[in-house]
Write a structure and sequence with these properties.
This protein has about 325 residues and is of the alpha+beta class. The strands form three sheets. Strands 1, 2, 4, 5, 9, 10, 11 and 12 form an eight-stranded antiparallel sheet that branches. A two-stranded antiparallel sheet has the order 3-8. A two-stranded antiparallel sheet has the order 6-7.
Length: about 325
């Protein structure tokens, strides 16, 4: 470990310890980087053995390597009310108001005795900035798998996705948007329904602002982890290779497809899926952000030809 990287890791660790459990209404890159020092979110496990054929001038041998599985913080997903006010301060300039996406805020009847008719949230999905800090932290556990995200790269900016995000076209006509019970976060039976995934836009009916922001974050994550969606975005996906099995589509309520770490209004040391029973802090400015951790499995290449792998039974 280089002295510069060692100092960076120490600084990030100190920042994390000071900030866990505190509240804030914006977050900067340094605090986001510190948040990756979470063994709970990492979830590092040895899950199997890979077999490789290594050939030299003297013959061929079968070599083995350990297959591991862990989560990688691929992106920061911000969900916020006021257009241009991404709570991740250094990237707010990426999603400033434009001619087709000027305003924000909730729908209202302007009657104090009535709840807002609809919540509206912008959403940005931007590559997680952790980089070397995460690699150094995860590397302490063993061999690590690369994720799909590139630091600071925008994968979805809702201000550029106006037709889908602000008008719900064409997804307002999809069966998932019209049939109750399809693609919902939580359930009606348990009286813990946070909202519907479809249509994947910025509007929904939800009196709890935290839950509304979480649903919108899930929608944004749902879009970028699939190819060929009718949105303006870049897929946040890697291709499978020999000895490398990347994360697939994100599915609500399923931690095996991804999980969320709250960054603001409160920085959390753990990850969860929506809905969750953790305490929820309401952001007074309507701005929330989560790190999206995604599962990857891989093994170190030990030969020219990948012969296969055997996974342990859970």
């Amino acid at each position: 470990m280089t002295p510069a990287l060692r100092n960076s890791l120490r600084t990030a660790t100190a920042s994390l310890l000071l900030s866990m459990g505190t509240t804030a209404f914006a977050i900067d890159t340094a605090r986001i980087m510190s948040s990756v020092l979470s063994a709970d979110c990492l979830g590092y496990r040895i899950v199997g053995i890979c077999f490789w054929l290594r050939c030299t001038l003297f013959g061929c041998d079968v070599e083995t390597s350990v297959q591991v599985r862990h989560y990688v913080p691929d992106a920061v997903v911000s969900s916020y009310t006021n257009t241009g006010e991404n709570p991740w301060t250094e990237v707010a300039f990426m999603s400033l108001p434009n001619a087709t996406a000027e305003g924000g805020g909730d729908g209202s009847t302007d009657q104090s005795n009535e709840n807002d008719l609809a919540k509206f949230k912008n959403a940005d999905v931007i590559g997680h900035p952790a980089g070397a800090v995460f690699n150094e932290f995860a590397g302490q556990f063993g061999y690590i798998c690369p994720g799909a995200g590139t630091p600071f790269v925008p994968y979805l900016l809702s201000t550029l996705d106006t037709i889908a995000w602000r008008h719900n076209l064409p997804e307002m006509f999809y069966p998932e948007a019209l049939i109750p019970g399809l693609r919902e976060i939580g359930s009606r039976q348990s009286l813990n329904l946070w909202g519907n995934v479809y249509p994947r836009g910025g509007f929904l009916h939800q009196v709890d602002d935290y839950k509304a922001a979480a649903v919108v974050a899930q929608r944004a994550g749902d879009i970028v982890t699939r190819r060929g969606q009718i949105h303006v975005y870049q897929p946040l996906l890697s291709n499978e290779q020999d000895g490398y099995w990347p994360a697939g589509p994100l599915t609500e309520g399923d931690p095996s497809t991804g999980k969320w770490q709250e960054l603001t209004p409160r920085l959390s040391a753990s990850c969860a899926v929506f809905p969750h029973a953790n305490s929820r802090i309401q952001a007074t400015d309507g701005g929330y952000a989560w790190a999206l951790w995604r599962p990857y499995s891989c093994c170190e290449r030990q030969g020219q030809i990948f012969l296969g792998h055997v996974e342990f039974v859970d």
